[in-house]
Structure to design on (186 residues):
């Protein structure tokens, strides 16, 4: 385990045990990784969209820190929850943009703003989110593996650690989940 990962896990345990100072030491260690996750998400979004990487990271971190007393198991668990939060933030943002596009808002959009909410990656994100919800009903573990691997960028080892399953099971389930999602989305 790399020293930073061990340090993150230790700080998460200290936070869980009530050490307020541990949170301020955690921020610089996790911010870069959260930013990497957010950048990965944002690469799939259209350029010029209103939600920026920094705003996504900040919103996710705020939501994470509001979870006082969260039973963080380790670094992988923390980033798994962060990935889930980022997914929900992006989906909520995409829904808001599509609602505006469809006249769900009182304000009128100018031509440039209308172009910004045109069909594109946000629609794909919503389709993926809907398919993941269906997959979660069918097989919650498969859905969680997709969330951790695709949205969280966790390795197969980290995913197995978060879910308490073997790497071999993660690999097999990841393949099954990707095939199932492909069929649902196409």
């Amino acid at each position: 385990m790399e020293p930073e990962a061990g340090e993150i896990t230790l700080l998460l345990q200290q936070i869980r045990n009530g050490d307020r100072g541990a949170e301020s030491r955690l921020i610089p260690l996790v911010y870069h990784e959260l930013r990497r996750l957010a950048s990965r998400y944002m690469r799939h979004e259209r350029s010029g969209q209103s939600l920026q990487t920094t705003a996504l990271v900040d919103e996710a971190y705020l939501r994470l820190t509001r979870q006082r007393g969260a039973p963080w198991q380790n670094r992988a668990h923390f980033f798994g929850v962060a990935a889930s939060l980022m997914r929900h933030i992006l989906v909520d943002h995409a829904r808001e943009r599509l609602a505006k596009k469809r006249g769900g808002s009182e304000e009128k959009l100018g031509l440039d703003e209308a172009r910004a909410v045109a069909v594109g990656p946000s629609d794909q994100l919503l389709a993926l989110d809907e398919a993941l919800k269906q997959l979660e009903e069918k097989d919650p573990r498969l859905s969680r593996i997709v969330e951790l691997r695709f949205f969280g960028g966790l390795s197969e080892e980290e995913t197995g650690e978060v879910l308490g399953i073997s790497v071999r099971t993660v690999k097999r389930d990841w393949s099954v989940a990707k095939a199932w999602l492909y069929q649902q989305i196409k």
Remarks:
- The CA atoms of residues 55 and 101 lie 22 Å apart.
- The chain has one domain: 3-185.
